[in-house]
Amino acid sequence: MHIARRQFLMGSAAGLAGAALAPGWLMAEAAAGRIRIGGRHFAGDFAAAKRAGIEGVEVGVGGAADTLQIADPAVRQKYKDQMKATGVVVSSLSLDLLNGCPLFSHPQAPAWVEQSIDAAHDLGADGMLLPFFGGAHLLRGKEFRKDALDALIGRLKELAPKARTAGVRLGIECTLSSRQYLELLDGVGSDAVGAYYDIGNSTGAGLDVPADLRALKGRLSMIHFKDGGNYLGEGKVQMEPVAEALRAIAYQGWIVLETACPSKNVEADCRRNADFTRKILGLAA
């Protein structure tokens, strides 16, 4: 089961202090213990996200710089203003810059993660996406790059306590099997680090998505839904087995749509995919 932010914060003495400072709306949402639908399409327009049926927006942290864009209080205030006006929250922060500046090797990467943890806590975001694609990929062929794995585990062990104190879960996204995810997560040994599983990427990599989701029960931070250039339910991803797996593990947390927009109408296409997701998972509209 996904660790609700309230439960996560209450897990340590430091977390108690964080819980006392957390916004009331955040604590109420976390206590609800349910699946919520987020999206990556609306970082600049939360009102459009609301019209599209999206409850939370995954926000980028900006490009490589000594101080990330998201670390600027003025930037975060704009997001806070949109949250207050619409009721749509920041579900998560995405550190896309790590694809070109891998967390396991780039000298500034840990500092960027720390800045983003502070920003996520300030915005009330549940988690962070740490991606590993392109030159940052953790696999060589189908096996781990051992040097990258060892270095990443070391850095995550240093970052995890800060994330846990802040009540923010770090989500690792890569085309890893559940066995490989568990090897990585067991090496880190902290519930502040989980798997950010992408059902579209994993299907494309030939992985058994429903089996992976079942094996990762309790270790999932968030989930990306997408299916190439298709609407959900109309491509290669077998959505009913995915839904059955999520019900079987009683998943609670964010499902973030990273879906395509075939009609070029972002709001309409996201609404269609959000409605499909709610229907297949049996969620209230």
In brief:
The protein is 45% helix and 16% strand. The protein has helices spanning 5-9, 13-21, 24-32, 46-51, 73-86, 109-123, 146-166, 178-188, 199-204, 209-215, 239-248, 266-281; strands at residues 36-39, 56-60, 89-94, 127-131, 139-140, 143-144, 169-173, 193-198, 220-225, 254-257. The strands form two sheets. The protein has an eight-stranded parallel beta barrel with strand order 1-2-3-4-7-8-9-10, surrounded by five helices. The protein has a two-stranded antiparallel sheet with strand order 5-6.
Please describe what this structure looks like:
- This protein is α/β, with parallel strands linked by helices.
- The chain has a single domain, classed as TIM Barrel, CATH 3.20.20.150.
- The protein has twelve helices and ten strands.
- It has an eight-stranded parallel barrel with strand order 1-2-3-4-7-8-9-10, surrounded by five helices.
Give the biggest beta sheet: 8 strands, parallel, barrel
CATH architecture: Alpha-Beta Barrel
Strand order of the largest sheet: 1-2-3-4-7-8-9-10
**What would you call the structural class?**
alpha/beta
The CATH superfamily bears the name Divalent-metal-dependent TIM barrel enzymes
CATH class membership: Alpha Beta
Question: What are the defining features of this structure?
Answer:
two-stranded antiparallel sheet; 10 strands; 285 residues; 12 helices; single chain; 45% helix; TIM Barrel; disordered N terminus; eight-stranded parallel β-barrel; alpha/beta; globular
